[in-house]
Design goal:
heterodimer, A: alpha+beta, ten-stranded antiparallel β-sheet, elongated, B: mainly alpha, two-stranded antiparallel ribbon, about 0% strand
Chain lengths: ~350, ~290
């Protein structure tokens, strides 16, 4: 639907986006996820036409649009600050795009009303933006973009100004809206939970590059880099030295003396040392079975109550720390030295 | 206004100097002016306290009506030129990087560091028959005889535009600087080209600044007499000159006061209209 080919964007000496390519399928919800300054917003602005890339091309339905100004592109953006026109009523805000396109008045009115209906804002037509709550403004911004029937909707951290509870509710609304309209969404956020909830696919960006692109499950289960592992969810990163290679299995050991085994295919040939990631919920008390990917001994230093589960901070005799997640109230007590293991398949070797 | 509705004693005490100032220099003089306008005068120009409408009857004399209209036209033209020249400048300054912005603003204010009369004389030196511009044009053989520039209506408008341009730039700058850039992007995103963005987003959102600028240029320009005296050579009298004349040369204070009152009413009407314009300056109650 929309495609970016080898986009590079510089601001002076600073390279905001480095040689990024991605393609969004029709009806797909793609999230650009990363910390501030990673280039995700710049990439979105290149797609919208607010920034011209220094290199590369933008294609909409196979046609190159790199040099088209934003007002000639058949896509719309929802802005972080909503950017509602303060001098216009809700109705006129939503009608703005249709007016610019010269839609006849009768048709315009019908579409504006159905768009406002679609975001549950019937009866607010004559309010001004400053007479609306944050969530209502958000909906007006959505209706204003959707009423133009764009091919792709671009969203720049649209939920970041809302409080936590409203944000959760709007996430669900947004997802339903996207399913109902069947539009392609390109969504920018720095909130990993939001990305996991909403996306069909996530592109994790760091320092202007895409670190990893895949479904939320893929990225969560099989992060490719330390950055991806750490940015999505929590990760225990463990440095392991290769001890012995067999045909199908590699034995490894950490500086602490923890022993690990990984399928041979996961450890690059010739590598002496790798970093592996294990999610806290996969660090379990006990010695595990013979196939366990990692076994270790550590003392429970702290137990943090987190509602349904407890987070345990484990310290080995050598001083290395690890996090484990157990059902609330279960597992060894604070101060107890115990054995722990990570089951096979839950320890993931990282590329870097 | 809700703020200040419960000012309390301390609040009133703080306001006292301002109130005294206002009473002494606005309320009392205005009252004297209005009272004077209904008085008579003797042959020596002394005010005779005898009620009369005569002064107001004289203000509608065709001679003065013509001068009024000419003054309005002159000030109107000045305002239009100031707006046309000032808006782009104000917009550019308001949208510039903050570091550049303060320098540009300083440049707008720099003329105020020199006396206004000196600057007007400088213009006269440039424009007069044997002045710099004519001298240069003659030297370059572009013209044979000097162009008449000084003491023309054009010179008056030039002088007025020069005097009041900063008063147009500053309020529009204030509106332009506050305008959220994402609104312009949003308008582009919704299919508005540069012209539509200007007419449907930029103009409505800088309207308070435009209204304030128009008021701040039009009102003083209509009453200005120094520029018209010096650069117009008193050949094309405007209402400011007439009023000044009544008080200084003609010594007809009551008639000067009547002209002043008419003038004041005119402004009240202009302000009333501007205040009712959508999104304009002045107190709002929504």
């Amino acid at each position: 639907m929309i495609e970016a080919r080898n986009i590079t964007k510089r601001f002076g000496d600073f390279v905001a986006v480095r040689d990024v390519s991605l393609a969004v399928a029709p009806g797909e919800f793609l999230t650009l996820l990363g910390p501030s300054g990673c280039g995700k917003t710049t990439l979105l602005r290149v797609l919208a036409g607010f920034e011209r890339p220094d290199e590369g091309a933008v294609l909409l339905e196979g046609k190159e649009i790199t040099d088209l100004p934003p007002y000639r592109r058949n896509l719309n953006q929802v802005f972080q600050s909503y950017a509602l026109f303060p001098h216009l009523s809700v109705e006129d805000n939503v009608a703005f795009g249709l007016k610019m396109r010269g839609t006849p008045a009768a048709d315009r009115e019908r579409r504006v009303h159905s768009a406002l209906d679609g975001v549950a804002l019937k009866g607010f037509e004559h309010r001004k933006p400053d007479q609306l709550s944050g969530g209502q403004r958000q909906r007006v911004a959505l209706a204003r973009a959707l009423v133009c029937e764009p091919k792709v909707l671009l969203l720049d951290e649209p939920l970041s100004a809302l409080d936590a509870k409203l944000r959760k509710a709007m996430q669900i609304e947004l997802k339903q809206l996207q399913r109902r309209t069947g539009l392609s969404f390109v969504f920018v956020t720095h909130d990993q939970q939001e990305a996991l909830t909403l996306s069909d696919r996530i592109a994790i960006m760091n320092a202007g590059r895409i670190e990893q692109m895949g479904t939320p499950e893929e990225i969560y289960r099989r992060p490719r880099t330390a950055f991806a592992a750490d940015f999505i969810g929590q990760a225990n990163l463990i440095v392991l030295r290769v001890e012995a290679r067999a045909a199908d299995l590699v034995r490894l050991r950490s500086a602490e003396g923890w022993s690990a085994k990984l399928p041979a295919g996961e450890v690059p040939a010739g590598a002496n040392e790798i970093t592996a990631s294990a999610r806290p919920e996969n660090v379990r008390p006990g010695s595990g079975d013979a196939g366990a990917a990692l076994t270790l001994a550590a003392r429970v230093e702290t137990r943090v109550f987190e509602g349904a589960s407890d987070r345990l901070i484990l310290v080995s005799t050598g001083g290395a720390r690890l996090q484990a997640m157990v059902a609330a109230g279960s597992g060894p007590e604070t101060g107890v030295e115990a054995e722990w293991y990570v089951p096979a398949g839950k320890l993931v070797a990282l590329a870097r | 206004m809700k703020i200040g509705s419960r000012a309390g004693l301390a609040g009133w005490l703080l306001l006292l100097p301002l109130i005294l100032w206002f009473v002494a220099f606005v309320v009392v003089p205005t009252a004297i002016l209005i009272g004077c306008a209904f008085c008579d005068r003797d042959d020596l120009g002394r005010i005779v306290y005898h009620f009369t409408w005569e002064n107001f009857r004289r203000t509608v004399d065709p001679v003065y009506v013509t001068i009024f209209i000419r003054s309005i036209a002159c000030a109107g033209l000045t305002t239009v030129i100031c707006l046309a020249a000032g808006f782009p400048a104000a917009w550019f300054i308001g949208r510039a990087k903050p570091s550049v912005r303060s320098t540009l603003l300083l440049l707008v204010m720099v003329p105020f560091w020199t006396s206004f009369l000196i600057r007007t004389y400088a213009w006269m030196t440039l424009l007069k028959q044997e002045g710099l511009i004519n001298g240069l044009l003659e030297y370059l053989k572009i013209i044979r005889s000097p162009l008449p520039m000084l003491y023309t209506p054009g010179a008056i408008v030039l002088g007025l535009v020069y005097a009041y341009l900063p008063f147009m730039i500053l309020p529009i700058y204030a509106s332009a600087e506050k305008l959220d850039g994402s609104l312009i992007e949003a308008a582009h995103d919704l299919g508005a080209g540069p012209l539509r963005v200007f007419s449907s987003v930029i103009v409505p959102l800088t309207l308070p600044g435009i209204a304030a600028g128009v008021l701040m240029v039009f009102v003083p320009a209509i009453g200005m007499f120094a520029v018209t005296d010096l650069m117009g050579g008193a050949r094309v009298p405007l209402i400011g000159n007439v009023i000044q004349n009544q008080f200084m040369q003609a010594r007809d204070w009551p008639f000067g006061a009547a002209l002043g009152v008419v003038f004041l009413l005119l402004f009240a009407i202009v302000y009333w209209i501007l205040q009712r314009a959508p999104g304009a300056a002045g107190p709002h109650h929504d």
